[in-house]
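W.,

You were right to be curious about this one. When I first looked at the sequence I had no strong expectations either way, so I just let the prediction run and decided to look at it fresh. Below is the sequence, 235 residues in total, followed by the output.
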Amino acid sequence: MTNCLDFRREKLADPRHLSPGALAHMSDCAACRGFSAEINENEAQLAAALDVPVPEGLAERIVLRRRAGARNVAKASPRLWAMAATVVLTFAFGFQQWKDFSSQDYARLAIEHVMHEPESFTSTRLADPQLFRSVMHNFGGEMQASLGKVRFMKLCPVPDGTGWHIVFETEQGELATLILIPAKRMQSQREQATVGGWTALARPGGQGYYAVITQSPETLGKVDELVRQRVRWRG
């Protein structure tokens, strides 16, 4: 059964095409109908005002530049930057929608996010080590050494706003996902969960908390230790 979290992820991922389950949920949920109407209005304004394509990762790069206070930004047409700004505002809207979403199930939520984005394991996106370091720095993590080869990075809607979905390959060839969740503080020092063959470990760090997700407990232990050894968290 589709819940509010599932519906809003689906709506943000593909506003024009909703599954039967999502449509049924929307008909019964006033809050999600309002969310859908806001997204539809945003999409209509964007389509009417701008007709240039957004390069892959532009929104993420703008967010990073804005947070880092960079003065020199890449040259682009005013219309392109207007579109990029609209993309960023869409993420800001998502933050407000999820601001009051309450859940203490940090590790489980991280697994659910990974399960909703299987393309992260078959796609290469923003696979730039320097960009990854910038993401980590802005979140509050200082890299002491490399975690491995970054294969995928994406700015995603999460229960408390927008976070980073990162897939990397360790030096031993093991795939792992790192989810960075801002604005939510964990009361405990760790939380672990297993759902649908995936296992995750969440810990406080940086601007909120982070979660490591793998497909086996053995790999999870090794990757968790790797992150703890090679990332120094501020705050």
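Here's what jumped out at me. Residues 78-98 form the longest helix (21 residues). And, maybe more interesting for your project: The beta strands are 141-143, 149-158, 161-169, 175-182, 191-195, 198-205, 208-214, 231-233.

Coffee later to discuss?

I.
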